[in-house]
Protein backbone atom coordinates (compact mmCIF):
# COMPACT_ATOMS: atom_id res chain seq x y z
CA UNK A 1 0.00 0.00 0.00
CA UNK A 2 1.34 3.40 -0.93
CA UNK A 3 -0.09 6.65 0.39
CA UNK A 4 0.06 9.48 -2.13
CA UNK A 5 0.10 13.07 -0.91
CA UNK A 6 0.86 12.16 2.69
CA UNK A 7 1.24 15.80 3.64
CA UNK A 8 -2.29 16.60 2.46
CA UNK A 9 -4.07 13.89 4.47
CA UNK A 10 -5.78 14.98 7.70
CA UNK A 11 -3.99 13.69 10.79
CA UNK A 12 -7.05 11.67 11.85
CA UNK A 13 -7.12 9.77 8.54
CA UNK A 14 -3.39 9.15 8.65
CA UNK A 15 -3.67 7.93 12.24
CA UNK A 16 -6.45 5.52 11.30
CA UNK A 17 -4.51 4.11 8.37
CA UNK A 18 -1.31 3.73 10.42
CA UNK A 19 -2.99 2.09 13.41
CA UNK A 20 -5.04 -0.27 11.26
CA UNK A 21 -1.93 -1.42 9.42
CA UNK A 22 -0.06 -1.83 12.71
CA UNK A 23 -2.92 -3.88 14.15
CA UNK A 24 -3.45 -6.11 11.12
CA UNK A 25 -0.18 -6.36 9.18
CA UNK A 26 2.86 -4.80 10.83
CA UNK A 27 4.82 -5.97 13.87
CA UNK A 28 6.36 -2.53 14.48
CA UNK A 29 6.62 0.94 13.00
CA UNK A 30 9.62 0.02 10.83
CA UNK A 31 7.43 -2.59 9.12
CA UNK A 32 4.70 0.05 8.80
CA UNK A 33 7.02 2.46 6.98
CA UNK A 34 8.08 -0.31 4.62
CA UNK A 35 4.56 -1.65 4.07
CA UNK A 36 3.06 1.78 3.34
CA UNK A 37 6.13 2.89 1.37
CA UNK A 38 6.18 6.25 3.15
CA UNK A 39 8.83 8.59 4.47
CA UNK A 40 9.22 7.77 8.16
CA UNK A 41 10.23 11.31 9.14
CA UNK A 42 7.23 12.86 7.42
CA UNK A 43 4.81 10.42 9.03
CA UNK A 44 6.33 10.93 12.48
CA UNK A 45 6.28 14.72 12.11
CA UNK A 46 2.69 14.81 10.88
CA UNK A 47 1.43 12.57 13.70
CA UNK A 48 3.51 14.41 16.33
CA UNK A 49 2.03 17.71 15.16
CA UNK A 50 -1.40 16.18 15.83
CA UNK A 51 -0.31 15.16 19.33
CA UNK A 52 0.34 11.46 18.64
CA UNK A 53 3.38 9.31 19.33
CA UNK A 54 4.22 5.66 18.77
CA UNK A 55 3.79 3.31 21.73
CA UNK A 56 5.82 0.13 21.13
CA UNK A 57 4.06 -1.76 23.94
CA UNK A 58 0.67 -1.52 22.23
CA UNK A 59 2.15 -1.18 18.71
CA UNK A 60 0.02 1.84 17.89
CA UNK A 61 0.09 5.61 17.77
CA UNK A 62 -1.56 7.18 20.79
CA UNK A 63 -2.27 10.68 22.05
CA UNK A 64 0.62 12.06 24.11
Task: Explain what you see.
There is one protein chain. The protein is 50% helix and 12% strand. The chain is built from 3 helices and 2 strands. The protein has one domain (7-63). A two-stranded antiparallel ribbon has the order 1-2. The radius of gyration is 10 Å and the shape is globular. The chain is α+β, with helices and mostly antiparallel strands and 64 residues long. Pfam families: DUF4250 (PF14056). InterPro entries: DUF4250. This is DUF4250 domain-containing protein.
Summarize the structure.
With 64 residues, this protein is an alpha+beta fold. Helix content is 50%, strand content 12%.
Radius of gyration from CA coordinates: 10 Å
Treating each run of at least 4 consecutive H or I residues as one helix, how many helices? Answer: 3
Overall spatial form: globular
Low-confidence stretches: none
Number of domains: 1
- Write down the overall mean pLDDT: 92
Distance between the termini: 27 Å
The largest sheet is: 2 strands, antiparallel
Number of beta strands: 2
Strand order of the largest sheet: 1-2
Helix content: 40-55%
Strand content: 5-15%
Task: Describe the structure using short key phrases.
single chain; about 60 residues; alpha+beta; two-stranded antiparallel sheet
Amino acid sequence: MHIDNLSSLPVEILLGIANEQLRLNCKDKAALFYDLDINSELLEQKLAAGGYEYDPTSNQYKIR
